[in-house]
Design brief:
Elements (H helix, E strand, L loop, with lengths): L1 E2 L6 E2 L2 H9 L5 H15 L2 H11 L8 H14 L3 H11 L3 H4 L1 H17 L3 H18 L4 H8 L18 H18 L7 H17 L2 E2 L2 E2 L7 E2 L3 H17 L2
Parallel strand pairs: 2-3
Antiparallel strand pairs: 1-2, 4-5
Helix pairs in contact: 2-3, 4-5, 4-10, 7-8, 7-10
Length: 248
């Protein structure tokens, strides 16, 4: 390990870095658990079954239940909220009764779908009969209902300041919330661990970049350690500075 005379950064070679990594004990069983956790929570049933067979890893989770959960998620993603609610009630009759915020968000998504289809009168009736009572019981939800109803004030909802409610991303947000609730109801983690670990990796590298030049992973999709020479690091820094100045 060396320190550059023109910088306080340490220069760590690929050989040194790999040697340090080799000293960290990582059990293969832990890695397998991490992969299985991701496959189950994200709903990759076939991959989970294949991975279980190949790795010899047995899980207490009923892999058959993944199909039911994914059918519910797809229904929400397709805008079929009544269908999703019906499936949820078949799978877990108490879930929506015990989670009023989740139920409100599902009903809100159905209201959005009615507005998307141009069914203004039906949307108004649905909001009054189904959503308004929830707002009275839970005042913190009224703001969300008001935002949704504001879509009706625009002839072209796509040009509304609240048009993001009509984006697929909002369906996905609702689907993820419901998926997390279904997982929690079966004593499973709400979210997979792997994305959080990748975020931690990115943050850690950013912090380390200030102190050392070291072999880093620059592409999560193709995670290969790439040795950063002092000259390359300086060039990347100059390029970044030049790009920033050109935008000002």
């Amino acid at each position: 390990m060396t320190t550059s005379s023109s910088s306080s950064k340490q220069n760590i070679s690929l050989e040194e870095w790999e040697g340090k990594m080799a000293e960290v004990p990582i059990a293969k069983s832990d890695l397998n658990q991490l992969i299985m956790n991701y496959l189950i929570i994200e709903g990759y049933k076939d991959a989970a079954e294949k991975f279980s067979e190949e790795s010899g890893l047995h899980t207490s989770v009923d892999l058959g239940s993944i199909d039911e959960r994914m059918q519910i998620r797809v229904a929400v993603q397709n805008g079929d909220i009544p269908g999703a609610i019906s499936r949820v009630n078949d799978l877990n009759p108490d879930l929506l009764d015990t989670d009023p915020r989740l139920y409100f968000h599902l009903q809100q998504q159905h209201l959005i779908e009615l507005i998307r289809q141009g069914k203004a009168e039906e949307a108004l009736e649905f909001a009054q009969d189904e959503l308004a009572p929830h707002g009275e019981q839970h005042p913190e939800l009224l703001r969300e209902l008001e935002k949704t109803m504001a879509l009706l004030a625009f002839d072209a909802t796509a040009r509304s300041p609240l048009a993001e409610l009509l984006d697929f991303a909002h369906r996905q947000k609702t689907a993820n919330e419901l998926n997390a609730a279904l997982l929690a109801a079966h004593s499973q983690p709400r979210e997979p661990k792997l994305p959080a670990l990748l975020q931690l990796l990115a943050w850690t590298q950013e912090q380390l970049d200030e102190k050392a030049s070291y072999p880093r992973i620059n592409n999560i999709v193709n995670p290969v350690l790439e040795e950063q020479t002092p000259a390359a690091a300086a060039g990347a820094k100059d390029a970044s500075a030049g790009s920033s100045s050109s935008r000002t």
